[in-house]
Amino acid sequence: MQNKNQIPDPGSLKIKAKLASFIAAGSLAVLTVLSSWSFELRSILRLFLMSGVLSIGIWVGLYYFLYRKLRDPISFDYKFLIICIISSVFFSFRIVPPQHNIYIRHVITIVITAFMFLFFYLSFLTVLINNEKIHLGNIFPTLVFVCGFAGMMIIIINSLSIRLYSDDFCYAVQLENMGFWDSALWFYNSWSPRFFSNFLVMGLVHEYRVPLFFLFFILFSFYFSLLSIVKNSPTKRWLLALASAFFIPFAVFTVTPDLYKSLFWIASTLTLLPLLVMIPVYLAMIGHFLSTNPPNSRWLLIVGLFLSFAITTTHEVASLGWLGMHIIGLIWFYMARSKNIHLRNYLLVGLLAALIGLIVMLNSPGIDLRVNARDLPPSPPLQQIISSTIQNFLHFINTITWPKYLYHGVARPSWYFIIAAAGLGWLTDTPIRRHLGTAALVLLSTIAMATVSFFPAAYILSATLPLRTQFIPTLYLVFGVFIFGICLPRVTNNLLRTSVAILIMMIMVFGSLISLSQLILTVEPVRQYARDWDLRDKTVRTTSEMPQRLLDVPWDEYEQDLECVQLYYQTRK
């Protein structure tokens, strides 16, 4: 029953079918007993006695239904063995709970679990893979969807508790006093160079349901963008696009260091979430040009021109990385001697729009006025700015798992999601040609875009980015590794490819479980915050009391800016 397409390697390792059946039964029995003990080693003697009895029944079933039909030995090479060892060690460290008081027993449990999982993998899962009993085409996108959907639902539920916070109140007053257009231009001329997002902030900051709608826009943007480039059967195509549309934003929200203020501070949200809406559409259009040669691309160029300008002027932290992406893309185009004229034109139009957007921001009178108002120090020399930019990025990477709030526990599962995003791209079928050089260029571009995001803060603030604004390098990092995975060549050996996919799924599932267990702890605090906010709002509107600071704020309560809150309610008395 050996798969005919599986050609044995002369240097491969082999296990006879009958021996494999004994190994599979024994290892599964040990794992079953440990599982019933919650992976706490209570007695080595009892473990092997109970496992020995249980393995007899398991062996009868496995041998009758599977192993007696095998005619050839189970074969695998050393590359597959290495992936199995990595998977086993990872599984063991994640599944075995800490036992601080009994360190030696804890280590023994990890070792036993790792070896039993390795034996089970080699003797049982290998048979299923070789005989095409494991169909990852349906299992993988389903798991991705479940993980992403669960995470995004908690975030969406939390968004129902968003209320005006800090300077949101002042901007709402300014909108009432000056109107939409004049208030946006006033903001550009007196404080913020973010031309495009200024209109969003001044026009929508008073609507605290806007972040909820943006979250839905993000899901729709990702879904239709991915649907346009995913190449699969119709069923798998929409499922994989839907799964990725939930999981990639979930990854961004998990990896970003300060989800609270990136999402619950509306003025900040309106300068960050639009990037998650526009960038997928823009990149999908690049993918469209890479995979096809559209006869009439004029309307795509117009859309790309607007999107590139809007992305650049949404936030200054995103602008330099976005500009650099186009420069690197055009360098690649000419070095690869590509004849895709439509792609070249699209990148040139995007570069032009990014340059115009950068010029618009640099010419904002609000930059100097903001610097003077905040009494910021003079900008350091260029060499020091570049050095600080690199150091701040390295610190960002080094602390990417550090907890910020109590709900983060010991650590944030950031690397789980970064690896899972790359794996998701690697397992996604697209018309884009996979090439190691292209993948390396994408990865280097990702690192460059994330690094240069720290340049504005080093130049203006002589410091690193505020944690809420580190959402942008996080976004670049997650998007970049996903595209890196799309461009990375895949191995042709089905056994090896499936084993890597299983490892990716394990990393994704365990990372998601950690993130979900952390996010669920945020639901009640933000609901309490909303209840306190609503009670204060009702009290101030119906009595002569002045608004007071909210004491129970899940994030840094000192930034409430009570003057703005009082000004907001004075206009409503």
Note the topology.
Blueprint: E1 13-15, H1 17-36, H2 44-65, E2 74-76, H3 78-95, H4 103-130, H5 136-159, H6 168-178, H7 180-190, H8 195-204, H9 210-227, H10 234-255, H11 259-263, H12 266-291, H13 298-312, H14 316-335, H15 341-362, H16 366-373, H17 382-398, H18 414-426, H19 436-452, H20 455-460, H21 471-487, H22 494-519, H23 523-542, H24 562-570
Folded structure, characterized:
With 573 residues, the chain is an all-alpha fold. It has helices at 17-36, 44-65, 78-95, 103-130, 136-159, 168-178, 180-190, 195-204, 210-227, 234-255, 259-263, 266-291, 298-312, 316-335, 341-362, 366-373, 382-398, 414-426, 436-452, 455-460, 471-487, 494-519, 523-542, 562-570; strands at 13-15, 74-76. The chain is built from 24 helices and 2 strands. It has a two-stranded antiparallel sheet. Residues 1-8 have low confidence and may be disordered.
